[in-house]
Amino acid sequence: MKKFNQFLFAAVMMLFTTVAFAQVTVTGKVVDGETSSPLPGANVLVKGTTNGATTDFDGNFSLTAQSNSGEIVISYVGFGSKTIKFSGDTNVGTITLNPDNSLDEVIVVGSGVIDLAEDRKTPVAVSTIRKTEIQERAVGNVEVPEILKNTPSAYISGQTGFGDGQIFLRGFDQTNTAVLLNGQPVNGMEDGRVYWSNWAGIADVANGVQVQRGLGASKLAISSVGGTINLVMKSSEKTQGGFVRFLGGNDSYAKGTVGYDSGINEKGWSFSVLLDHWQAHRKWARGTYGQGQTYFFSVGYKPNENHNLNLLLTGAPQLHGQRWSQSQEIIDADPKFNQHWGYTDDGIESERQNYYHKPVMNLNWDWNISDKSDLSTVVYASWGRGGGTGPRGNGRIRTADPDGDGPLYGQIDYDAITAQNQQIGIGGDYGGPLGAGYIRRSSVNNHQWYGLVSNFSTELNDKLNLSAGVDFRFYRGDHFRQVADFYGLTGWSNDRPDGAVVTEAFDPTPWAALFNFADEGQRIDYDYSENINYQGVFSQIEYSNDKFSAFFQGALSNQSYVREGRFEDPGKSDKLSKIGYNLKTGLSYNIGEESTIFGNFGFYSRQPFLDNIFENIRRSNAIVDNPEVDNEEITGIELGYIFEVDNFKAVFNFYYTDWDNRTILGSDQLDNGTPDDDSDDIFLNIFDRGVRQVHKGVELDLQYRLTDKINLTGYISSGSWEFEGESNVSIYNSDTGELLGTADGVNREGVKISTAPQFTAGFGVRAEIIDDLDFYGNINYYDRHWLNDGNSVQTENVGRIDPFSLTDIGLTYDFMLGENKITLTGNVFNLFDEITIQNSDRFGLFNTNGRTFNASVRYSF
Fold this sequence. Notes:
The protein is mainly β. Strand 15 (240-249) and strand 16 (253-262) form a beta hairpin. The longest helix has 19 residues, at 2-20.
């Protein structure tokens, strides 16, 4: 009996020891809930212990737990944490974290029409900016493009007016870089332009921004020559909460923002709202004042696990004074100089003021048809109202030049202009004894845009996925000029084909422009409309296994154009339709666990922009037929290599883009020799057809997580972007539509593209200095930025912009006040105030910018 008891005791002890020291392995993957991209360096900890691990650059982790069951806690700086149970050897699968403690609180809708790079196994050249970084840096006097400048082959021209910045990817401007908002195309249907001033509130409502350079992952037949920028907006959130934020910056910039989420109720409804107001004396240069608002309303409804709907309405009405590029002499004399403004009884006023209001509404519907199939659809509409002001007449009067006979102009003297106009009475007669007088006109661009994108995807088997969809767009744009200010005149004549006198002025502000603009009887100079209808289909099939992936993608579209004139050449043009298509394919192969090679190949046959279809868009319904404007042809090749081990990741890309049969529409002005008198100037439309340009280069993108609290990033990109061959030029009188001349066989061979620097490099650090105090710093270097010859048709280079670097820094500190959080943020952009030439325009004039800063306090409840 004694021996039996001893045996039983030993057995029990062995059992407890075995259980106590049992070891199990827990694995999984951690991703960003807004962009589905991996979260490298996330902390994974066995709850109640110090035993843990961190995720690698793919978001994967593996840890050994000393007990057979328990819980792990997953956390990441700036994201909410999540607790997961395990029992035995467990693969917990993909764990989603959402920014700003909103874990599992965002209703993600429209994911099937938002073409993020993570949705495809075959890699592309991509950079992702997450919600936390956007809210730290782009919430005030810095626009969304500025946060993309730490991307290889990306260059941001930070124009001095609010919202006037431009982004260039691999040397292509933003008219040839596709911008998508929750899967909705943003580029203008007429000319591909993107006006960031219309999207000033995106930073406040964005969940993430992803830049796909080159061919990208988008399935749509869009103008993605340089790349694709995906703006992913928030939707209605699941839990109740809100915030209040106040922000201030240089030159009296001030902004206040409030946001609130109702949370989801028992019936599946949720509501979100955000409102803000901002204003500033100037951005940096004189006369670049601005003010605006942002509104965002979202209603979500989840009736069951298979359906998810979200309706949102957002807009960012704004106005801001502008400054055009300056000559070298003016920059040397005063880099903040601006010739377009003066004082009135109401304060500063600029003859060059942009104002716009573009409400956007969309309805997203996600239908989970089965475990293997789903359908995602977005129906959208936008109504743009507004334009830009400028001078008309020959009666501008200025104060004395500040530097005597130097290059600087005096300010606009509105009091003297008004006194002179009162003597003239009805203006517009350039031959009168006092001239035509001076008015401020508005060039109005109103539009209605409706569209639908729908994508069906299904898992054919565990290795093969298929998707297909449709893309419909219906667009009408109305363009005309109206009087914004008479400055003492009783009317304006000689600017209508019927000779009528115009007597009404229309307030050039965004809220007024929404409903109050000139009818046909009060329009001046030009008045026309255009209709563009677009129908597209697209499909993609992808195969993937543990080592290999490959895809094929195709899109086919039809686009039709009709112009309707109401002044010269009244009536409608013939309808012109163009078929376009694109084909893309790619493959990747994993070489062991550390290395991946990939390649992507594509060809686009892209329809020309509407502005290139007509001989004179403002004056004539005649379609260009000598020669006919054909589709542009874009061939793209990308090769890449990804190396990642532990906390280090390097991505190398080679790209080659051949863009042929391009039409460049330019403008120029034959000056009569008097700077402030354009009464007998001849304004020109210049068509440069058959242009070919080749962009090729290499990119190296580096990431290294030095410790759990320090992240390092860096990049180098070098390109060779040149024109090749010859082009044909036609020059038209913009006022009359008369063909003034042609030039065939204009030699462009070897001329460098002058849009952006062809060598860029950058280094960044992000560190948690102490608990809840984060610091970031970035330095970007730019070189090999060629200048053109100052002509609309560039035929030679005349030098290069001097190389320069820009440094940005910022701090963020979080602390708790009871159960609520307070966040303090500060940023300085262009820390060392490098006032250097950063860009040039087609006339050989230059753009500069200087140091800006902001600081904010946010109370979250």
